[in-house]
Design brief:
heterodimer, A: alpha/beta, Rossmann fold, 2 domains, six-stranded mixed β-sheet, B: mainly alpha, two-stranded antiparallel ribbon, two-stranded antiparallel sheet, 18 helices, 70% helix, globular
Chain lengths: 254, 371
C-alpha cells in the first residue's frame, strides 16, 4: 500500500482499564481538510495527542510523509512541519502579541536551538514584517504591543492560530478551534480557516460545531468510544444512519 | 515602520553612554551619602556583575538558582591560584575564573536542569552545599580549608619570575604594572561591570533573550513551537555562572584571598534578595538591589549609638533616650532587621521590585500630564 501524506495505523491507547483508542486507522491526503468528529470522550483529543508527541500510543504507527513520528519529542515533530492549535489557548501570556508570533517564526527559521544572543531583535526586519502582516490579517495588529494574557478568549485563540500559521506548517492540527467562541468570532475564524484552505495546507480538525465542520471539511471521520465508526465526505456522513444515531441524533436531543 | 517598540530599550548606544557615566562617576555622587570609598565602590561593581549575570538566568527564564555562590567561590579560588602559580597580573586570573566557573556551571546546570521549579532550586542548593563542604574540608590541599587560600612569599609565580626580579614580601595584584587596589581597583571592576551590563543588554534584546522569556512564560508551548528548551536554559545557566565566576575572580583581585564562606548558601541567597529587591527581569533592578544591600551592610552596620544620638539631637530630651534606643535596633548589628523590613515592604507592595515602583511613579506622572 502506498504511504499517504499523513497516516495513522492501528493505534491503540489504554488509560488504566479504559480503552481510549481502539485500532484507529486514518489516512489524510495532502491538501485536504480532514475533520474528526465524535461525542465527548470519544478519544478525539487523545488521538491528536498521539500525533504530536504528547502521548505515546501503546501500539500502532503515526507516519508523516513516510516518517514515523511515534517516539519523537514535541519539538522534533514541530520541526518536521506539524503544528498544533490547542483546545485551551496555549500562548505566552506575559509577552506582547508581536513577540508571541515572532517566536514561532524564529523556530521555523533557526531550528530547535540557536545561540543568537548578540543579534538585536531590531535587525529582524523580515520576521517582524511577517509577524505584523499575519497580525493584520487576523485583525490583531492594533493590539500588537499589548500583553497576550489580557486578551479575550476568542482573540487568544486567533492569536494561537496565527502563531501556528506563521510557521507555514505542512500539516496543521486544530483542536476545536471555535470552542467557547461567540458566534461572531466563530464566523471570523471560519473565514480565516477557509482562506488557509485555499492555500492548500493540509489540516486535521476536531470540532463539535457541525456548522464549522460541514463548511470546511473535505472528508470526515466519526470517532465513537475510541473507534472510527464511519468515514466519508460531508454529504455521506450527513446521510449515514449509524452516525446519526451515535452522534448527530444525540446532538439534536440536547 | 521600524520595530523599535518591541525592544526593552530602543537606543543601546545612548543607554550605554549614560550607564557608563553614572558608573564611572560613582565616587562623586556617592560622596554625600558616605559611600564613596574604594572598598565599598569595588563591592558595588563586583556584586553588580554577579547580580546582572544572575538576572540573565532568574530574570529571563524564571529558573531560581540557590547555588550561584558556588561559581563565585570557584572564581575566587581560581584567581588566587593563578596569582600563586603564574602571575600577579589580573587578566589571566579573571579569564581562568570565568572558564572554570563556566565548566562548573555546565556540569551543575546539566544535572539540575533535568527538573524545574522548586526541584531545580533544591538541586542547585544541594550542589552549592556540596561544593561548600568540599572547599571547607575535603579539598583542603586546594582550598586551604577553614583558613582560606592566601598568597605567600614562597609561591612560584612562574610567569612573573621570568620578567621581574623576585622582591621582598608579597607582591600586589596588578594589570600590567597598574596596582589593583583602591580607586584603580574600582575603575577596573567598573569597566568590567559596564561590559557585563552591555552583554546583558544585548541578550535581553536578542531573539535568544526573547526565547528565554518565552520559556519563563510557557515552557510547554515552547516545545510545541519547535524549540528544544534544554540548551536554551543551559546556555543561560552557563552565562550567568560565568558572570558569577568573573565576580568571584574580581573579589580576589581586589583582595587576594579566597575562603569557603564565599560559597555558603547565604551568599547564594543574597544575590536572590538583591535581584528581587531591585526588580527581577529588569535591566537595572538587580544593580539597584546590589546598591541598597551593600550600602545597608556597610554603612548602616557601622552606625552606633553615638551617631544616632547626634542625628536625633533635635528630639526633646525626654524622648531622646527612647528614640535613640529604639532606632539603634535597626542599625549596627541590627542592619539585617532594616533589610528584612525593607524586603517585606517591597515584596508586599511592589512584587516587581523597586523598578516597578519607578514604573508606577512614571505612570502617575503621565496621567497627570494628560489631565
Amino acid at each position: 500500500m502506498e504511504s499517504s501524506f499523513f497516516q495513522i495505523q492501528g493505534v491503540n491507547k489504554t488509560f488504566g482499564g479504559l480503552k481510549a483508542l481502539n485500532e484507529v486507522n486514518l489516512n489524510v491526503e495532502e491538501g485536504t481538510v480532514h475533520a474528526i468528529i465524535g461525542p465527548n470522550g470519544a478519544g478525539k483529543s487523545t488521538l491528536l495527542n498521539c500525533c504530536i508527541g504528547k502521548l505515546i500510543p501503546d501500539t500502532g504507527t503515526v507516519t508523516f510523509k513516510g516518517e514515523n513520528v511515534v517516539g519523537k519529542t514535541a519539538y522534533q515533530i514541530n520541526q518536521i512541519g506539524i503544528a498544533r492549535v490547542f483546545q485551551t489557548p496555549e500562548i505566552f501570556p506575559e509577552l506582547s502579541l508581536i513577540e508571541n508570533v515572532m517566536i514561532p517564526a524564529f523556530a521555523r527559521r533557526d531550528g530547535n536551538f540557536k545561540l543568537n544572543w548578540f543579534k538585536s531583535l531590531m535587525q529582524e526586519d523580515t520576521i517582524y514584517k511577517e509577524a505584523t502582516d499575519i497580525l493584520e490579517n487576523f485583525g490583531l495588529k492594533d493590539q500588537m504591543m499589548h500583553h497576550a494574557g489580557n486578551m479575550s478568549r476568542g482573540d487568544k485563540r486567533r492569536l494561537e492560530l496565527a502563531m501556528s500559521l506563521i510557521q507555514h506548517p505542512k500539516l496543521l492540527l486544530l483542536d476545536e478551534p471555535t470552542a467557547g467562541m461567540a458566534r461572531h468570532d466563530t464566523n471570523k475564524t471560519i473565514d480565516t480557516l477557509k482562506k488557509i484552505k485555499e492555500s492548500g495546507m493540509t489540516k486535521i480538525i476536531i470540532e463539535h460545531d457541525m456548522h464549522v465542520v460541514f463548511s470546511l471539511a473535505d472528508k470526515i471521520s466519526v470517532l465513537a468510544q475510541g473507534a472510527i465508526i464511519a468515514e466519508g465526505t460531508p454529504d455521506e456522513i450527513k446521510g449515514n444512519p449509524v452516525v446519526q444515531e451515535a452522534y448527530l441524533g444525540g446532538a439534536d436531543d440536547e | 515602520m521600524k520595530n523599535e517598540k518591541i525592544l526593552k530599550s530602543n537606543n543601546i548606544p545612548l543607554y550605554m553612554v549614560i550607564f557608563s557615566v553614572v558608573v564611572l562617576t560613582m565616587p562623586l555622587w556617592l560622596e554625600p551619602i558616605g559611600a564613596a570609598y574604594p572598598d565599598l565602590l569595588q563591592k558595588f561593581a563586583i556584586f553588580g556583575i554577579f547580580a546582572v549575570g544572575f538576572n540573565i538566568l532568574f530574570g529571563l527564564t524564571g529558573y531560581l538558582s540557590f547555588g550561584h555562590a558556588t561559581f563565585l567561590g570557584v572564581g575566587s579560588y581560581t584567581a588566587v591560584w593563578s596569582f600563586k602559580l603564574l602571575t600577579m597580573n589580573v587578566l589571566p586570573a579573571i579569564i581562568f575564573s570565568m572558564v572554570l566557573a563556566g565548566i562548573f556551571a555546565l556540569l551543575i546546570g546539566y544535572i539540575s536542569l533535568r527538573r524545574s521549579g522548586i526541584y531545580f532550586s533544591i538541586l542547585t542548593l544541594a550542589f552549592a552545599q556540596m561544593s561548600y563542604n568540599l572547599a571547607y574540608s575535603v579539598l583542603t590541599p586546594i582550598t586551604n580549608g577553614e583558613t582560606g587560600l592566601q598568597l605567600s612569599k614562597n609561591d612560584p609565580r612562574v610567569v612573573d619570575g621570568l620578567f621581574v626580579e623576585v622582591g621582598q614580601g608579597i607582591p600586589s595584584t596588578n594589570l600590567f604594572g597598574l596596582e589593583m587596589s583602591g580607586y584603580q581597583g574600582f575603575y577596573f571592576c567598573a569597566v568590567l561591570l559596564i561590559i557585563a551590563f552591555y552583554i546583558s543588554l544585548k541578550i535581553f534584546n536578542s531573539p535568544f533573550g526573547l526565547n528565554l522569556r518565552a520559556i519563563k512564560s510557557n515552557q510547554t508551548r515552547m516545545s510545541y513551537t519547535g524549540y528544544n528548551t534544554k540548551p536554551y536554559l543551559l546556555a543561560a545557566f552557563v552565562i550567568s555562572g560565568m558572570f558569577a565566576g568573573l565576580a568571584g575572580g574580581l573579589l580576589a583581585v581586589t583582595d587576594p584571598l579566597a575562603g569557603a564562606e564565599r560559597m555558603q548558601w547565604t551568599a547564594s541567597g543574597e544575590v536572590v534578595l538583591m535581584t528581587i529587591l531591585g526588580g527581577v527581569g529588569t535591566l537595572l533592578g538587580p544593580l539597584l538591589g546590589v546598591g541598597i544591600i551593600k550600602y545597608l551592610e556597610n554603612i548602616f552596620s557601622s552606625i552606633g549609638v553615638k551617631e544616632l544620638g547626634d542625628f536625633f539631637s533635635f528630639v526633646p530630651d525626654s524622648m531622646h533616650a527612647f528614640v535613640v534606643d529604639f532606632s539603634s535596633l535597626f542599625v549596627g548589628e541590627g542592619w539585617h532587621l532594616t533589610l528584612g523590613l525593607l524586603f517585606m515592604i517591597i515584596v508586599i507592595f511592589l512584587p516587581g521590585g523597586i523598578m516597578q515602583g519607578f514604573d508606577k511613579i512614571k505612570n502617575l506622572m503621565s496621567k497627570k500630564d494628560k489631565e
